[in-house]
Structures are given as structure tokens and as C-alpha cells.
Amino acid sequence: MRIEVDFNVCADHGQCAIAAPVIFRIDDEGHLAFDASPDDVLRADAEAAADACPEQAITIVG
Amino acid sequence: MTKHVAIAGAGLGGLRAAEQLRAAGHAGPITVVGAEPYMPYNRPPLSKELLAHELADAEATPGTDADDLVALHQRIAFRQRPSVADVTFRLGVPVTRVDFAAGELALAGGDTVRFDGLVVATGLRPRRLNVPGPAGPGSGRHVLRTLDDCAGLRADLRAALAGPGTPAHAEERRRGVSGIPRPRVVVVGAGFVGCEVACTALSLGCDVTVVEPAGPPMLRVLGERLARAVQRAHERAGITFVLGQAVIAYAGHDRVTGVVLADGTDAGSARVSGGPASGGLALAGTVLPADLVVEAIGSLPNTEWLAGSGLDLTDGVLCDNTLSAVTGPRAPETGAPVTSAPVTSAPVTRASVTSAPVTAVGDVARFPNPLFDDVPRRVEHWSMPTDTARRAAATLHAKLEGDPIDPNSFRPLPYFWSDQGDLRLQSFGSPGLADDVVIAEGDLDELDKGLLATYHRAGRLVGSVAFNLPPTRYRALREALLA
Fold first, then answer.
1. B79–A56: do the CB atoms touch at under 8 Å?
2. B391 reaches A (C-beta below 8 A)
3. Is the confidence metric ipTM above 0.90 for this complex?
4. What is the pTM of this model?
5. Identical fold at B5-40+83-124+300-401 and B141-297?
6. Which ranges of chain B have pLDDT less than 70?
């Protein structure tokens, strides 16, 4: 599984980090950091994070 | 036998219901029926990014005022999960009726869709002001719920911003050079949509007035002190508020030229529901000049197609905590008018008697949330379609398969955000339920520097609203509500 985030759209709402904290986190500057190729067992979490993004900036590939 | 699920409504709730049915294991056919001609799209940008998108440059190309709706839609369309690739979308055809005995939806135009299980996801539509004056397409009166609404408002804003004169005049108008008139936008309603539209119109270079009879902006959710603080912040940015006065008419013949106020709230509330157009009435109050008007006075559930089905349609579709729709009070057998039943605080225990299982999702679903209490409520927050679809799909799938229903209670934490000029508001929980508001951090006159308000009912935390706080803070705000 590969995860892409469109940083032109991401507005740091932080909802992905709440839905899938193993994959997404907010760094000390308040910006998004994430694991771009998490283990496939985390797919449901990744889907929940993508769903929860207010800007719909997260795409799950493969 | 393969079970067919029909989903009435192709917004966020309808899409999420289809996805979650697949996630729950439903392998049979799914048909999603939508009144709008578009694949599901994200509505929040309609009052913000999409409304403003490229409009600022519009005056550079006068005459090209028609939007490319396909391109606009692409900017906000939801991604499609592979699991729903085989879902049938019937778009641009409203559902007109349901026949539970036959297991059939009737669509506008005469087609039917057969189902073994049904998801109600028909959402809301904007309330309209029923007052005398110009109405209909071209009248300059707008609402904002759909992509088509947004495109109509964009076209009117663009024309108003281009205005008479040269592109240089338009640029001076936008920058507010003195003596160059700016387009005058009146927003009726100071809820979240009204405030967002007001801020967007201001950013585009319009003069903006917000009229709200009930009080300061977003009063019902934020409470008096914070609502006043938001009002002051928006006033400093340049928005004018006219509070405590109802709109009783629109001035103008074919097109709105002004908004007529009831000078005095008591008279106004009596007149708003008044009769047909009256020239005398229209001259009764103060007239706010307006080149265009946006009505943002709340929404009504789209449940007319369920009338006579036996479901309780008092303010949306009444559901139990598993999101199964439940039957309502028996309709009177005579022609007596049906009075709306009061919202009861009794636990919802009535069983569905429809032949096929029915669940509801999103802002049309009225259900009890034990996170707060046992009162069924509709929740118009953005997070609700996704959360309710997950539970409603699991319930429907279990019923179709004869499996046990998940015994755990459904306790979603409502969340929404609102971007208004320099302010980003994030709301967790249900601040509207509170009887006490505490300003936990920050200064009410400096919302942009960060403020946290906590909302309490009978001493218990029920909501948090953050203004311009960094996202590193959100998890703790959320977890405090779930504790």
C-alpha cells in the first residue's frame, strides 16, 4: 500500500493523525508527517484517515 | 439469494454507505440514486475555495461568465474506492416514492429500483424565505447547498465584480479605491454557511452585510459571548452585521435591488409569514441596498418521498442507536392535520415494521447518541455521514444476512470545522447542548491568536471549540470528550 498526500490541498486539519496515528502525525511545527508505504495490515486505518480528511488530500494507491 | 441494496441519495452519506456496505461484506448489487447529476462531491468548499476559485481574475475575461461545471466538479469530487467500482449510480433522478411491500423505489420519470435493503441518505435542502419580492433564476437571490447553487452564485458574483466600466475600474473596485462602488452582497442568516459566504464575498471585494434576526453569528452553537467575539472579529475585517431584525421583503422588480427589514423584531416575525406581495409592505422598513442576496437560514430534511411509509419523519428519519429506521406514530385516519410530535427523551425502542431493513445516514438521520444522552437528534456536522455510514452499513448487512446486530452502542464524536477569513474554528462534540461556556485559553478580542472554549452541561464536558489552535492540540481535545 502506498499513500500520497496532496500538500497543495492539505490544510493541517489534523484529522488523519487522529484516525490513523500509526501512519500520520502532526510534527512540532504543526505540519503533517506520514509513512508513505505502511504495512498492508493498516489499510483500514489508512482508509479511515483518507475519509476523515476535510480537504480530501489523501490518496491510497495499490 | 443475492440481496440488492438501494441507497437513496448520492452525497457523502450515500457514497460512504456504499463503501461501508462493501467493507461490511455485502457482495450483492448496490444502486445509488441521486437527485443531482453529479457523482458524490465534497460540499464544504462550495462556500469557500470553490466559490472564490479564479473569481478574482474573472473581470480580466469579460463575457466568459459560464463556469465549466465538469471542471468545477472535478475539483471537489470524492475519490472512488476500488470496492465500489461495480456500484450503479443513477444520477439526476430524484426518488419520488418508496413501496416497502413491493420493495421498490419509484424514481422521477417512472423507473423503479427494486431492493431487499434500503439506506436513506437524501440529506437536506436549504430553507427559503417566504417573503414578497423577486424570486427564481436571475432574481439575484441565492442559496448554497449544491454545486449548481455554487455555480449560480459564482456567475452572479463575477458579473457584479466585473461591473460597468473597464477592467481597470473593476480592479479599483476590488481594491476598494474610494469613489468606486463595490458590489453589495447581503447574506441572510448568520449560521456557519452564512458566515463563510460572507467572508468569501468580502475577500473577493464585495461590501457584505449579514442580517440575522436571532442574534450574533452562530449563536446556537457558540453561545452568546463567543458569538459576540466572532461578530467583532468579522466587523473589524469589514463585514456589517444587522442583528435582531427579520427580512420582510425584497425590493426590486425582476431582480433584487434591496433587502427590506422589519424595523422592530416583533412586527417582523409576524410579517415574515405574511401573505402575497404587497408594495406597501415592501416600503414599511429600512431597505438595505443589495446587488445580490444569499439566503443561509438553515435546512429541511428531504423525506417527502417516505411519506406514508410508516417511518417516523418528525425532523428527519427517526432511527434507533443502530441506525435502523423506526416506525412513527400512526397517522390520523381523518383529514385532521398532522401535528409534529414533540422530540421525546424516551429511549427509542420501537421496532421497524417495514418488510425490508431500512437504515439512515448523514444529516437526515435522527438518532440517540449515548455519548451525550438518549435524545434522538439530527447532526449536520461534516463527520456524521462517514461515521453513521459505517454503523448503518454494518446494521443493514447483518439484517440482510440474519446475523446478530453489533451490541456495542454507537457513540460518534461530532466534528466540524469552519474557515472564516483569518479564523479557523474547530468544533469537537456538541457545544450546542451546553448550559455553561468556559473560555479556557485566549482572549475573546484576539481570536486569531488562539482561543479554546469548553462547553459543559450539568457540569459535564460536552464540547470544545478551538479558534486558530495548532493541530497538535486536537487529539487531546477529542480524547477529553471521550473520557
1. yes
2. no
3. yes
4. 0.89
5. yes
6. 1, 55-67, 164-180, 264-284, 329-354
